[in-house]
Design goal:
This protein is mostly helical. The chain has a single domain (56-266), classed as MetI-like fold. 82% of the residues lie in helices and 0% in strands. It is built from eleven helices and no strands. α3 packs parallel to α6, α6 packs across α8 (172-201) and α7 (159-167) packs antiparallel against α8.
Amino acid sequence: MRQKASLKSRLFLIFVFALLYTPIFYLIFYSFNSGGTMSNFKGFTLEWYREIFHDTRLMIIVLNTLVIALLSSIIATVIGVIGALAIYSYRKSRTKNTVLSLNNVLIISPDVIMGASFLILFTIAGIKLGFYSVLLSHIAFSIPIVVLLVLPKLSEMSPSLIDAARDLGASQWDVLSKVILPYITPGVFAGFFMALTYSLDDFAVTFFVTGNGFSTLSVEIYSLARRGISLSINALSAVLFVVTIMLVGIYYFISQRANVKEVAIRK
């Protein structure tokens, strides 16, 4: 019975992954089509990749996207770690649960609502839509993600570690920098890479808060798709997919090293 259940679960997983990845690989496959359509593959070409890499405007948009993603992820990670430490320090469970609930509401809120809210806020505050409005928005929706990924590592940490450090004469800064932060490093990296992925991927919020003369890849791909089918979109999407896979690989490598170190310390 267990073998049958295991076989069914594997088949189901294969079906789900095939359903998710087949359209992506179909899109990537036709990014090499010399025919210029997604219905008839005439021959292999790198023309569409050369086109996107020779498009100066597109390269500027790629740079904008990367700068926004890196800056927002770094700032959100710093603020998120501080927020997670603050929530962890609450002694009253009711207060902690209330703050966590408010944090989780921001994660599950529809992007359209968040985008419209940011647009209204920036309009009232007199902030010009463009680089800074997009940056602030990405920081805002990335912070709750970082908090959610750092808190479990803090909860796993035994309070005896902090008590032992204090008994040995460690200051508050020493406890934070030499005990707490090294322990929660995997969670910090997880939060950073998740924030980076969300920022690179975001469309709805960015669409609301971007202004004339400034754009990100997600918004640009949407505008290109509205003009009609072009295999340059396929090529650009393929490059983004490869970059995402690389980020996931880097995160997996870092988390595996952290797990090996943690096991070695316990031994």
